[in-house]
Each structure stands twice: as C-alpha cells, then as structure tokens.
Design goal:
This protein has a domain of 102 residues: Nucleotidyltransferase, domain 5 (2-Layer Sandwich). It is of the alpha/beta class and 186 residues long. Strands 4-3-2-5-6 form a five-stranded mixed beta sheet, with helices on one face. The chain has a two-stranded parallel sheet with strand order 1-7. Helix 4 links the parallel strand 5 and strand 6. The radius of gyration is 35 Å and the shape is elongated.
C-alpha cells in the first residue's frame, strides 16, 4: 500500500442521527439539539417591546377615569370649589366659557353634537340640541335621569349660569348638576 493521498471517501466521520421519518420538519432536529446559530430576524426585540408596552400603559393610566368622565374639562377654567362633592354622572355637558355656551353630548346618545357653540340670547341652538338628545336617549331606551352637567368658571356671572339652567329646564333636562372641584383638606 503505497503512499496514496486519502480522499473524501476514506475519511472517518462521526455518525449523526440517521433515522429520519418520511416527513421531517426542516431544521427541527438542529434547533432541538442546539446545533444552530441564532438568527437576528428570529429573535424578539424585547427592549423595543418593553418600551412600547410601557408607553401604552402610561397612556392608558393617564386617560383612565374610574368615575366614567368622558368630557373634556378645560384646564384654564378655574372651577368653583365645594366642600361636599359627588362623582360626575354621565349626561350632556353645557360649558360656559366667556360669553359662549358649548354643548357636548355623552357618547351613548351622541348624534353628532360635539362642541356645539351658541352665543344667542335665548340659546335656541342649545335648546334644540338638548331636545334632540332627549329624544335620542328615549329612542334607545337609555335612562338619563334628565341629568345635565353645567360647567362654569368661578368668575362666571350668575346671569350666564341662570341662562344655562333655564335652557336646560326648557329642553326637559331638570336634574342639573354643577361641575366643581373638591376643596383641599376636606
């Protein structure tokens, strides 16, 4: 046996797992036995996911209201302070800002009324919109309790508040609640 060079056919190779079923999943055995190298596209970007979920949790916590408040309370509006308060009930919100009256409807009976402004002396637009809201609530059999919320700043004149109350009663909303801020230390 002279000095012949060894060929690939003469190499001794460690035998691997050699029993294969007819339908073998591609690469499953390699993945189970840790004979593969990790691929960038196959890994979860955990840091990015944690950032996204943290942002989502913070957003939801900032916008959550246990009392069901769904209305925008103007931050520039200094609300009157009260010693005794109750949670705000769901109903139309009539805001008095300056010389304007702004009506917002709750989502349950919202028929396109979002930020309806009225500056007329008789508040005709507000009265008509409140009547429409009442009819809409009755058509879907929603018990509103004739409840309306009036929001006004502490420097709003009494005449403006009386106009809002008169318009509410004229439209059939007789359970009037005022949006106030609870006094500190009470």
């Amino acid at each position: 046996m002279g000095g012949s060079a060894s060929t690939g056919a003469n190499k001794i190779v460690k035998p691997g797992y050699h029993l294969k079923p007819k339908y073998d999943l591609h690469g499953l055995r390699r993945r189970r036995t840790d004979e593969h190298k990790g691929h960038v596209a196959g890994e979860l970007p955990l840091v990015s996911l944690i950032d996204v979920f943290s942002t989502l949790v913070i957003y939801l916590l900032m916008n959550f209201s246990a009392t069901g408040e769904v209305f925008f309370v103007n931050k520039d509006l200094a609300l009157p302070k009260a010693a005794q308060t109750n949670a705000m009930q769901n109903g139309p919100l009539l805001s008095i800002v300056g010389e304007k009256f702004i009506l917002d409807a709750p989502p349950a009976i919202d028929n396109g009324i979002k930020g309806l402004e009225d500056e007329s002396p008789g508040l005709d637009n507000v009265i008509n919109a409140l009547r429409d809201l009442k009819a809409q609530a009755e058509s879907v059999k929603l018990d509103t309790g004739n409840r309306i919320n009036i929001q006004a700043g502490e420097d709003t004149s009494l005449g403006m508040v009386k106009r809002a109350m008169a318009a509410s009663v004229t439209a059939g909303w007789t359970n009037i609640n005022f949006v106030v801020e609870k006094q500190k230390g009470q």
